Amino acid sequence: MELHTIAHGAGVVFIFLGIATIIVAGIGLFKLPDLYLRASAVGTSAGLGVAAIVVGALLMDFSWLNLIKASVAIIAQLLTSAVGSMAIARSGYLNNSMPAEITHTDDLLKTRRDNFES
Amino acid sequence: MMWPVRIISFMFWYAKEFLLANVHVTADILRPRRKMKTNPAIIAVPAASKTDTEWTLISCLITLTPGTLTLSISREHKILYVHGMFVDSRESLVAEIQEMEDRMLRALRRQPGDLSRPTEAPVVVPSDEHEGSDEP
């Protein structure tokens, strides 16, 4: 019973950590200046937030079957959030969404076609 | 080090980097706007990856780390185009990415083998053949 209580408490802590991460990611959406910063900071932080909530739920209701389900869910969540962020950022660059003014170096700009025609 | 040991040590190292980067980005977002330290840049990082698996995995791992994002890769020139959130100098981001790649390749390959990277910047000229240029 004692172990059960500890696991339950840890589960609640993880769920609240996950919620806090997602809230911070939401604040980041408003504060960061351009698409790329948002995608890199927020996209994957939100992935971590969901992963933390899954871990919390697993701790509150532990079984071996749930452990397998949770592992698959976390791996899939992290992979898809990474691939999704890359796809969004790349398509944004191809559609002429320029990085914010504070971006001090842009090596990818050298490969742009319109850079050669000017 | 033996191969399985390298895999496990890479996993722990990556987990540590991932959590540290999360704390870093979270702290910066919560700072008042004029004190934010974001210093973004898009840097061409020379890469040592060879196979499809290695390219996919390194770009996913870079993107998964908060604060860095793979925008594009050029396998022909062996370059990863990485957008970084806290880039003080070109060298610091390149060193960070290359350390991650070195550790990843040592974990993926039974024999680490060739870890050399191109040292010269590629000459990129657009061509009308569809060759990874930015036109769809």
UniProtKB/TrEMBL annotation, chain A:
GO molecular-function terms, A-Z: sodium:proton antiporter activity
Key word Ribosomal protein present: no
Annotated TM spans: 6-30, 42-64, 70-89
Pfam families, alphabetized: PhaG_MnhG_YufB (PF03334)
Family annotation (InterPro entries): PhaG_MnhG_YufB
Keywords assigned: Membrane, Transmembrane, Transmembrane helix
Origin: domain of life: Bacteria
Similarity comment: Belongs to the CPA3 antiporters (TC 2.A.63) subunit G family.
Official protein name in the record: Cation:proton antiporter
Protein source organism: Nesterenkonia alkaliphila
From TrEMBL, chain B:
Region (Disordered): 109-136
UniProt KW rRNA-binding keyword: no
Gene Ontology annotations for the cellular component aspect, listed alphabetically: plasma membrane
Molecular function GO labels: monoatomic cation transmembrane transporter activity
Subcellular location field: Cell membrane
Pfam families: MNHE
Protein topology in the membrane: Multi-pass membrane protein
Keywords: Cell membrane, Membrane, Transmembrane, Transmembrane helix
InterPro entries reported for this sequence: Cation_antiport_E (IPR002758)
Transcription keyword on record: no
Family: Belongs to the CPA3 antiporters (TC 2.A.63) subunit E family.
Name this protein carries in UniProt: Sodium:proton antiporter
Taxonomic placement: Bacteria, Bacillati, Actinomycetota, Actinomycetes, Micrococcales
